[in-house]
UniProtKB/TrEMBL annotation:
Domain MmgE/PrpD N-terminal as annotated: residue spans: 8-247
One of the Pfam families matching this protein, by short name: MmgE_PrpD_N
Extent of the signal sequence: none
Native source organism of the sequence: Advenella kashmirensis W13003
Family annotation (PANTHER family): 2-METHYLCITRATE DEHYDRATASE, 2-METHYLCITRATE DEHYDRATASE-RELATED
InterPro entries (alphabetical): MmgE/PrpD_sf, MmgE/PrpD_sf_1, MmgE/PrpD_sf_2, MmgE_PrpD, MmgE_PrpD_C, MmgE_PrpD_N
Name this polypeptide is given: 2-methylcitrate dehydratase
GO molecular function, one term: lyase activity
Domain MmgE/PrpD C-terminal: 281-455
Family of the protein in this entry: Belongs to the PrpD family.
Length: 496
């Protein structure tokens, strides 16, 4: 079995521990874990996040796993779903080369299992890390890194990639903590195909002007689905054990590109975590490039909202899609996360990046609407040249710019990288920035007090030293302390 592509991936997924990883990869994994937890807790301050808590609470019965940022203890399958779902609600979670998101699925499954089993922090970190790394490799297998075709349109990305990566990541994390053999994990990878969104999920998503309030596939389902794929294999339920050696994905899913060499390339020597982008703003990653240029101009020139007369954001060739051009009154959180105008308006109005972007006033209020109406969108012509994207250099550039008219003057800035990108030439974004983001997001859903600030400090310390933790339940207990006090009448944030 070990000679097959599927077997090689399974062997890699189970054989590597934190002790085998370069220090830079271990640190990147800890920071991504912290960031993912912060994204989940921040989501509790949204209607969608509160719905997750209500659903988890209605699952019935006391469980062994915690819903992040709350005092809810639920069955571990429910916790995996809830935390995986919460991690993606704000669209503020990681992004590897704009392939998709899957850290929340890996952490959702790993944390639920590690807490339920009283495992140590090193086991959790290893499971989360290898879940993420195998998730990226599935992305490389299904859809090589984004490229530009002869007409300047993006290609090499399918709707399956993000949801598919999440299921595989959660499956790998579960397999490690559940003690699966290589043979069983190969079966589990075959089972994963049964939990992925078939065909092209974007066809199920509705029209651009009528986006629902659940983005893509349910990322909580990815966490729970990957967990169930592994559990089934442990109980002897077999999947297609050579799933990555066959053409099964090409038969079931439209538009995938099966690249087995890309899946296995550099296995054991190349690590994707240090190359992963951390989002600063709660919006689609494609927006971040032009937004980086816009934010830089506003900040450096001290532009006030009332000074800004007109803004032209210019970016990648996909932007003619209506979902990106939405201006007046985004109907919901999801629509807002895809609107260039909404993101720029929130930056211009100095709204803290996080759940505050999606309050009623900021979605449909007069002030926000007036600012969005001043923002237009067009294509940055540089993006039509594939050489500008830096793919041969192992990076991803998205040539973007911002032209601003304010106070009778004209300002212009260019940005090929986005804030949070990890490559040379990108704006500085380090551990300090990631911990500051975590503080901002956890404050959004917690009771403000000196004690809360102390608890946030303790959580940050615990996660950044997770490999020294003897019992993961010490971390989840700390996280419960960030929940609002019981006298507010609920066991999870009711309003934030």
């Amino acid at each position: 079995m070990s000679m097959t592509v599927t077997g090689q991936l399974a062997d890699f997924a189970l054989s590597i521990t934190c002790d085998d990883l370069p220090p830079s990869t271990v640190l990147a994994s800890k920071l991504l874990m912290l960031d993912t937890i912060g994204c989940a807790i921040g989501a509790l301050a949204t209607e969608e996040g509160r719905a997750v808590c209500a659903i988890a609470q209605s699952s019935g019965g006391e469980g062994s796993a915690t819903v992040l940022g709350t005092r809810l203890k639920v069955p571990m399958q429910t916790a995996a779903w809830a935390n995986g779902r919460l991690g993606n609600i704000l669209d503020m979670d990681e992004c590897y080369k704009v392939q998709g998101h899957h850290a929340q699925a890996s952490l959702g499954a790993a944390l639920a299992l590690a807490e339920s089993g009283g495992r140590d922090g090193k086991s959790l970190l290893s499971a989360f890390t290898m879940g993420f790394e195998t998730g990226v490799r599935l992305g490389n297998f299904l859809s090589p890194r984004v490229t530009i075709d002869e007409n300047g349109r993006t290609k090499g990305w399918t709707g399956l990639v993000g949801p598919g990566q999440g299921v595989l990541a959660a499956c790998t994390a579960t397999a490690r903590l559940a003690g699966l053999s290589r043979e069983a994990l190969a079966d589990a990878y075959g089972n994963c195909a049964q939990y992925m969104v078939g065909r092209d999920w974007s066809r199920q998503w509705g029209r651009d002007e009528n986006l629902g309030t659940m983005k893509y596939a349910d990322t909580g389902w990815n966490a729970q689905g990957g967990m169930m794929a592994a559990w089934h294999a442990r109980e002897g339920v077999r999947g297609i054990s050579d799933i990555f050696d066959s053409d099964s994905y090409a038969q079931v899913f439209q538009g995938v590109i099966l690249d087995r060499d890309a899946m296995l390339r550099g296995m054991g020597s190349e690590w994707y975590l240090p190359e992963t982008s951390i989002k600063f703003w709660p919006c689609c990653r494609w927006i971040h490039y032009a937004l980086t240029a816009f934010s830089d101009v506003v900040r450096k020139n001290g532009l006030r909202p009332e000074d800004i007369e007109r803004v032209d954001l210019r970016s990648f060739p996909m932007i003619p899609y209506p979902r990106f051009a939405l201006q007046s009154g985004p109907p919901n959180l999801v629509a807002a996360t895809f609107s260039f105008a909404h993101a720029a308006a929130m930056v211009a109005l100095d709204v803290p990046a996080g759940p505050a972007w999606f309050t009623k006033d900021n979605l449909s209020g007069d002030i926000a609407n007036a600012m969005r109406e001043r923002i237009t969108l067009s294509v940055d012509e540089r993006g039509y040249d594939p050489d500008t994207w830096g793919l041969d250099e192992g990076v991803l550039r998205v040539p973007s710019s911002a032209l601003i008219y304010a106070g009778g003057r004209q300002f212009e800035a260019f940005s090929d990288f986005a804030l949070g990108d990890s490559w040379a030439g990108a704006p500085d974004f380090d551990e300090t920035d990631i911990t500051a983001k975590f503080r901002r997001l956890t404050r959004a859903g917690a009771s403000a007090s000196d004690k809360c600030e102390d608890m946030i400090d303790q959580v940050i310390h615990a996660v950044l030293n997770i490999d020294q933790l003897e019992d993961v339940r010490d971390l989840t207990h700390l996280l419960q302390t960030l929940a609002p006090s019981a006298e507010r009448g609920t066991i999870f944030p009711a309003n934030a």
